[in-house]
Amino acid sequence: MNATSCDVCLAAVDLVHAEVNVANVTAAVIGNAVMALCAVFGGHFVRKECSFIVEHIEEIVGFVKNGTKPQVICSDLHLC
Q: pTM for the complete prediction?
C-alpha cells in the first residue's frame, strides 16, 4: 500500500460512484472505464493497482450502492 495505490483507488471509486448513480451501467462497462482512467492516470505505473480494482469491481459496486465512503472502500481493499 502506498500513496499512488490510494490515489488510484480513490479516483476509481469516484468513477464507480458516478457510473453507478448517474449512468446506471453494468460492472463490465465500469471495469472498462476504470482501465481507461488508469491509462490516463499513469499507464504501466499503476497497472497492478488497476487490475486489482477491476478484479474487485463487483465488490466495489456493492460498496458504492450501500453508500460506503470511498476512503473506507479503499481501506477495506488494502489500497489506502
A: 0.83
